[in-house]
Each structure stands twice: as C-alpha cells, then as structure tokens.
Amino acid sequence: xxxxxxxxxxxxxxxxxxxxxxxxxxxxxxxxxxxxxxxxxxxxxxxxxxxxxxxxxxxxxxxxxxxxxxxxxxxxxxxxxxxxxxxxxxxxxxxxxxxxxxxxxxxxxxxxxxxxxxxxxxxxxxxxxxxxxxxxxxxxxxxxxxxxxxxxxxxxxxxxxxxxxxxxxxxxxxxxxxxxxxxxxxxxxxxxxxxxxxxxxxxxxxxxxxxxxxxxxxxxxxxxxxxxxxxxxxxxxxxxxxxxxxxxxxxxxxxxxxxxxxxxxxxxxxxxxxxxxxxxxxxxxxxxxxxxxxxxxxxxxxxxxxxxxxxxxxxxxxxxxxxxxxxxxxxxxxxxxxxxxxxxxxxxxxxxxxxxxxxxxxxxxxxxxxxxxxxxxxxxxxxxxxxxxxxxxxxxxxxxxxxxxxxxxxxxxx
Amino acid sequence: xxxxxxxxxxxxxxxxxxxxxxxxxxxxxxxxxxxxxxxxxxxxxxxxxxxxxxxxxxxxxxxxxxxxxxxxxxxxxxxxxxxxxxxxxxxxxxxxxxxxxxxxxxxxxxxxxxxxxxxxxxxxxxxxxxxxxxxxxxxxxxxxxxxxxxxxxxxxxxxxxxxxxxxxxxxxxxxxxxxxxxxxxxxxxxxxxxxxxxxxxxxxxxxxxxxxxxxxxxxxxxxxxxxxxxxxxxxxxxxxxxxxxxxxxxxxxxxxxxxxxxxxxxxxxxxxxxxxxxxxxxxxxxxxxxxxxxxxxxxxxxxxxxxxxxxxxxxxxxxxxxxxxxxxxxxxxxxxxxxxxxxxxxxxxxxxxxxxxxxxxxxxxxxxxxxxxxxxxxxxxxxxxxxxxxxxxxxxxxxxxxxxxxxxxxxxxx
Lengths: 414, 414
Description:
The structure is a homodimer of 414-residue chains.
Chain A: E1 2-8, H1 10-13, H2 21-31, E2 35-42, H3 46-59, E3 62-66, H4 77-85, E4 89-91, H5 93-105, H6 112-116, E5 119-121, E6 125-127, E7 136-141, E8 144-149, H7 153-171, E9 176-185, H8 189-195, H9 197-201, E10 207-214, E11 217-226, H10 229-247, E12 251-253, H11 259-270, E13 274-278, H12 284-290, E14 299-305, H13 308-315, H14 319-325, H15 330-343, E15 348-354, E16 369-375, E17 380-386, H16 391-412
Helix pairs in contact in A: 2-7, 3-4, 11-16
C-alpha cells in the first residue's frame, strides 16, 4: 500500500520552517505497513495544490495533506479540495461545537473567521481536532483515501494517532514492512560498505540495505517487504546479526534509537548515573539526553559553564589552569569532567570545551578545536578533535563524538 | 525565476531523518531572488527519480537534487541522471584528485568504491566537494540548470555557498523577492488576523501576508515580488509598520530571527547578561541561546538541575522548600531563579520546573504542569502553566513561554 504526503504552505518553500511533520507521519504509516512513495511540499496556490493532488493520486492510494487549514486568508486548502472533488461546502455541527468549546475554555469570543472553520467540503467526514479549531477531513473517493489536517504539529499528531491510523487499518488490508537499524559510530560509510560487501550481495530481493550517515555516525538500515511479520523479522535478524558480527565494536545498538537513548538504556540497565559539563555545546548534550522520557533515572544534571567564572564555581576548575592553559585545553577539560563527577555526584560524566565558532578562534586553537573528556571514578579519557568551521555542526559533532567516547568507556567496564 | 528541490533517499520517506536540507537551500535561493516552487522527496528508485526530474523540469528552470551520491549500492542518483540526459559516464580527474587528497589526509587506503565516485555523467561540470568524496555536478541543458549534490548537510552547504549560488547568479538574470517577518508572542493566529484584517485587505497583489504559528508564537510574514529591491523594501516596510502599530505589545521583533536571538540582540545592546536554571527543559533553553554565534556576550551559563540534590547544590534551593512544596512549585521556581541570579552572577535569569511527561504526573500536578520564573535584581515574576501531554512539545512550549516572559520583563525596565 502506497501513500503520498503533500505539505502545503509557502513557509516551507521559503525555508522559514523545516517540515518535521512528514518524517513523523511517514514513521506512523510505516509502522502499519504503508510505504510513503513521495513527499511533496507545494505552495499556497490553488493550481499547484490541484496538480499535486492529481499527481499523487496516480501514484498512491492514500494521500495525506497537511497545512493550509488555519483561519487566515492565505489558507486555501479546504476550498481547493472541495473544488478538486467538485463538491460544495457545508457547515458541520461537530466541528462547530469543537470550535465553540475551545473558545469557551479560553474565555475568548468566537470570531467570524473561526465559525467559518467549521465549514467543510460536503463529501468529507470530520476528524475532530481536540487541540485546535481547524477540523481534519477524511475523504474516501473511488477507493482512495485523502486526509487533510492542519500543519500545526501537535494538532496533526493527535489526529493521526487517534483517528487516521485506526481508520486506515479499518479501510485497507495492509502488507507488512519491517526495518532493522544498526547504529554505528566512528567508521565511515565506505569502510562499512567494503567490510560487509559480501553480506549485502547475498541479500534477497525483498530485503534492502541503506546507509544513513550523519555527523560521526552511520546507521545501517535493513528493510524487508512481505506478508508475514514474524517470518520477515526472523529473516532480517539473520542478516543483521551477520552485519553486526562483521562490523564489531563500531556497533552502538541494533535498536532504532538515537545514540543518547542507547546510552540511557544501557546505563539504566546497569543502575549508573550521568552528568555533563558543557562549554561549547551550551546545553545541547543535556538536551539530547533529557528529551527522552525516563532520562531522569540516569541523567542527574549538567553545568553549562560558558564563562571562566562558572567553570570555576560550578565545576571547580582551578583559576590557574584556566589562565595558564586556556579554557580549551586538556587540563581544563580534565578538571571539568572530574569536577562534574564530584560536584554533580554521578558515576559517569562527559565534559566538552571548544571553539564552536565562528568567532573566538586563534592560530593556536582555530575554530573547530574541541577537547572532550569522559570519566568514571577510575578513569578519565580526554581527546582533542579538530572539526569544521560551522557552529551548529561543531556543536552536533562534539555531542555525538562525546557520546561515542562514553559508550567506549562504559563497555570497557563491562 | 523558479526552482524545485528534489531530495532522494528512502531514509526521508520512512521518516528516519528529517529533511533539513531543503529549508536551508530554499533560504539561500530566496536570498538571490529564486522562488522554490516545490520540494519533492522521492525514493532511491530509478523510475521514480526520472519521473520527478521530468515533472520538475516542467515547472522550474533550476532543479536542485540532493542525496543518493554516496559510495554504497543504494545510491543510484548519478547513473539515473546520466540516463535522464542520455549520456555515458566518464572518470573526472579533478574529482579523483579530491577523493585521493581526502583519503591521504586521513591516512586511509583508497577503495575501489571511492575511485568510482570520481565517475560522472559526461555532460556535467564538477562542483568540488571539499568535505567529502562525492563530487557535486552542474548541468546546463536547454537553458535549465540541474545541480546534483550529496545529501550530507555540511558537504552540501559548502557546495551551495561556494559554488552553486555564485554560478546561478552568473547564469540567470534574477528577479527580486523581499520578505519581512514580524515575530509575535502570546496571541493566537485568528486574533491577530481579526486585528489586522483591514490592513491585509489593503495589500497590493504583489505583496502577500502569511501567518506562521508555532507553539506559543506567530510569525507574520510579508513577501513582495518585483524588480527593484529598494522600492520593494520601502513598500513592505510601510505595511509592516502598520501591522506592528496595530498588534502592539505582542511584537517581539521585526527581524526574521528566532525569539532567543531577538533576546540576545536586545540584551547585548543593553550590556545585560543572562543565566538559566532548567529542570524540565533539561538544557533546551540554554541550547537555543548558545546555538547562536556571539551568545557568550550575554549568556553566562546554566544549571541543569534534574535531581533534588542539584537544585540545592547548584542553585541554593532550600531542602525544606523542595520537601514541603515539591520541585514543581512557585516556591521552588522562585528560589531557582533567584539562585541563578546569585550563583551564576547574571543580570537576568530564567528558571523552569515542571512535569514534562509522560511519567511523573499526579492528580495535583498532572503532566504538562510547569512553573516558569524570570527575574532581575529588582523583580521576580513566577507563573504557572498547564501545557499538554507530549514531552517534546512541553519542553518547547516551556522554552518559548519563558522567553516571552523574559521579553516582557526586559521591556518593563526600558
């Protein structure tokens, strides 16, 4: 079963927002055995939306549309869809009640533009929006399903989970897709590919292998297509095991989670705690850990010490260390990581200090120079890295590299 | 001048990665007056790529393709483009030298698969990739430009900045597009729309207004299309000024920057410093600030105090406060923000503590309950909020709401 996602809105096309909805929707669809054939972002223009709908209909049976349902004048999706199906608009009582309820809850007067939001194309079924005023719409026309939802992520997400997925399962007999992802850190895509070339060659045609590189890490994703979930999972596991055996110690996990989640799970299993001392990453490492539910079991806290002062007061870095070796040095990062262990009272710690850029570089320590340390009470490992010139990438690369170092230290001890 | 962006790779279609490249490319193209008509993400399939190229060619003069250029077997973009243009492949010396140089730098043996990366379609010009082994490719066929680049963000970004943008400027006579964005916090989309309805109605046809809502904030974006940049900017400014006058104190800034950047700029101008004390946001607020170059002028640091212990030791929250009122309370958040001012020695501070979820809620303090405080040495403001049930959204909403409160406190004092 194939789906297409159409996102409507100039804000995506001018790059003002990143389309995170589509990836999320694709994940939900995949989980019920629906493959996304194409994702298209189109402008707030009637002709363009009509063309996108026609093209999508030729390729897919399920067409998911997001965006363009707000109360404002640039939102034309609803009228355009009505035109596409050649139907009129009707006021829907269920949608109107929902709008009225939301405005009552916030003690706001119901505006004319909001009442208009309860008007929908005559041939659709309403998907109630519990988090906003724009109703979702479900169309089943000539055996194809079209779903139109607001682009506001939390409104759309609730609708997909509560209504769209159950309705799709009830409407179509869905095939099975299974993925297995192996997360590796520290080796490049081509080295991995060379190492497992013969395993890749031996894959049957219904199993595909993809390499997904990201700063400092590569995911190897096996995807199997078929009928029986259990058989597919057994089959895919055989190949995954072969690959992991071959790739060896670069493997972080064979569960499809980000590296920080793999660390949290491993540390939680072992009853270990973690703290961080961040300078150049400015909270990013802490954020990566704490975005995950349950992280508080492992993650105690972090000291974000941007200034010299705070490196001393929060982490106990010595004033003379800072002045004689500089904030970006082996000595400072070592005192930071050991200070985190002591002051933040954790079993393990990560510390980073570097020149994220674009300013602050020198001949001696150019932009991209980063010292990373990991430690437990028995051992401290500090390493210097020279990353690139882009601030955000230096921050991300520092975070993932520090996590790779932490994984290695954790495994040394098990 | 219209462009289309085609991103190739199953990893986007199964939702394993979010396509951040397209938004970034769109921003760069917009800045030189190229409008992106559509963004399409397609699978690693020859037929699908060929169809996408044909459809894009009918709509645009510039077609930017990313992804599918790695050395591994699932990467088929290059051969497919050669087939699209009906040309053969040739080995390119410049690309081969680049690959060899990169491998020499890292002391790695040059593999067969990497040498193959220097093979390119006969009708293209190489765009050198200084950060990776896959060359970029520039095609100019029948007055249309096609550019194919790797999907790895930092490789693609350097190529766009260094080569693609200058070459596009040299190839086409480009029109002008100007945007002006007004960032507002605290009012909903429909209230704003109602307030400025008459201004919106008075806009000439070459100026468009879009509403871009995001958790807790709405951006109002005016876009003008024409020939003369100066005239367009003057014209768009008139309407922006009218809107800002009408919308009043919800306006954060009329520069197209995120709210935290607006705060950094305003505080830097006034010579003020900031620290944060984060519990439920776990480093996210600090990360938002520190991702911006130059943030160290304002942002001194943060205490991420997930545990009770660290709330006491890093921020000086009293043990009895925690035990009698709980970590999520007015008393605790007040001591946190005042502790941040003192211990982190800043002029202003933000503190947050809440139940991000999904666990940790109670009847008294359900998931989504958040206390936020902002303070300077003269005044502390603490407020309670009840957000939703989703962890990531609670984190984001807490961050933006805290920033809105900080903006208000800053403006009270000026």
